[in-house]
Structures
1.
Amino acid sequence: MVLLAFVAPALTSARFSSRQSSLDSNFTVGAFSPSSAPTPSAQLDGSVVRLRWPAVTFPGASTVIYRVRRTSTSGNSSEVCAGTSGPTIANGEASCIDSAPLIGVPSTYAVQPALVRGGVTTWNMAYGAESQSVTVPGLLFAGSGTVINTVTSGIVNVPYPAGTEIGDLLLLVAVNGRNRAPRRLVGWTDVVSRGIGGGQDFHLFAAHRIADGSGSVAVDVETGTEGASLQVLRYDVPAGSAAPTVRASQTQSGSTSNSSSQLVPTPNIVTTAPATAISIVAVRDDNSLSLVPGSSWVLRSASTSNPGSTSLAWALADTTVGAASTVTSPTWQQSGTPRRWLFGGTAFG
């Protein structure tokens, strides 16, 4: 008898267990507020442009910065307010200064918010809408000198305004209680020389030159007991700009035939390039002269005097244009009993 035996390996068993690992992660969803880039306000401040806009926020540890773009009428764009001159934030408002704007060229500005985390720009919005257009004038009104009165014919020394520098544009204004212009001045070019005779006898004279380092001008006037008043006004020329010249193909010079409380000088000044247009007026009385609000013209200087037996008043205003154009005249007004007007105007750039 044969016996068969089978040997099987020993059987073992085991149980494995572990805790389930969570695969969930927490994500924070962030968004710019507001959801679109703001439009900056661009304001001319002398020879610089101040920009302001509502600050943009973003939750979390990221920092919002801004790129500021300037675009000229020719379509050329460049970044401004960069580096150490970058925008600052205060009371929920961002602001910066374009300290080297284009002179005499209309420009607009736009801002682009961006996120920075760990010193790296991670995301940015699209540029917002363009600001209103601003033009930095090539000439900046800088002040009026002392008014010099005389009741004696002959040489009168009229001082330049404080701070006058070589290269500035100077305007001499002489208002005479007689219908007499000063004798021609060497080195000065006439802007206006107009008078009224008869019972309302008086004369308005203005001339311009580039400052050469002297501190006054000697003017030879012919007057009497009526008296004459003289004054020099100054326009600053921004650094790097060429010496200003007359930029008008059509100027103003005239008088009104009747007394009137208001005056719109004619014809309109026509400029040949970007320029600062200037309007000068005078009346034979010590009436206050001012501009009717609502135009781009800015009153820069207004004076009254009683140099002798005649009272006089004169004033100057200006406006800036960014291209060759016809400049709509301002509307002048006088207080008190209306008198006849003398006026003149031109443009420099």
2.
Amino acid sequence: MSRRHENDDVHALMEAPLATQRELLARWGLPEAGLLILMSKCLGRCFFCAQRVVTNPPPAMITRWDPVDAWLEGNRTQGVARLCLGGTEPPTHPDFYRTLDRAREVGFTEVELMTSAVQLAHPVIVQRWWDHGVRTICAPIYGATAAEHDRVVQVEGHWERLVRGVDLARRRGMSVHLHTLALRRTLDALPGLAAFVRDRWETRLTVAPLRPKDMFDYRAEAVGFDALTATLADADVSLVGFPTCVLPDKPRQAPLLIEVYFKGQRTTYAEEVCAGCAARERCPGLVAMHAEVHGAEGLTPR
């Protein structure tokens, strides 16, 4: 997969030994955790992501056990409590439960998991994840109805399994965090989705910018900041990955996995308006491709 749109610093973080990750996260002002990636088969076919190495990866693309085991062993000396487990869909990895078992052996006491949550639609799986230390799940959602969500994920029945899975996870005691993307095709429905997430799961929906990739037309799908501001002005959402001057009154709170994931895209600043901004030091900037498509539209520097 091409990395031309990606942030090399974040890739270096995800591939680093645990001791180095601790140093980098502290330098970025982020909470302490271990970040481990398991590449395996995804259970969705989202139009902005799906390609063969994601939906049906060859064996060479699936994360091998030996480097996972060696990385986990680093915690015997580091003593980090929280393991953030991401990837394409970690629960489909052949060593998923083996990873969770070893994580507990080496001192991790809680797991934050990035997942589609569709496998959680079975109570037995929910209990098994809980017994293996999963305490937080981060899951994407693209609509408040099956029609809206499944149109993006392109798998019939995905929304129903996701909703049931999150219901059961929350009932078991897991913290649940839902995030979505700013897409033109779902923009008008975002306030309704935010209300659905709040009312059903008593949590705030996180909205993030679309990541440019080579398998779809970014120009046709990416939302401009003026349109986003107009749509979400009264919505109960949190933001991640957007410039600080875009909807500045909205909270910027998200689980570490979501925050790091959306740091993974290459960003820039619109120098003609950002150069003298008083908030620049703490601003993540804007997606580089977004700047190419929309320029400085919607930016209001301080």
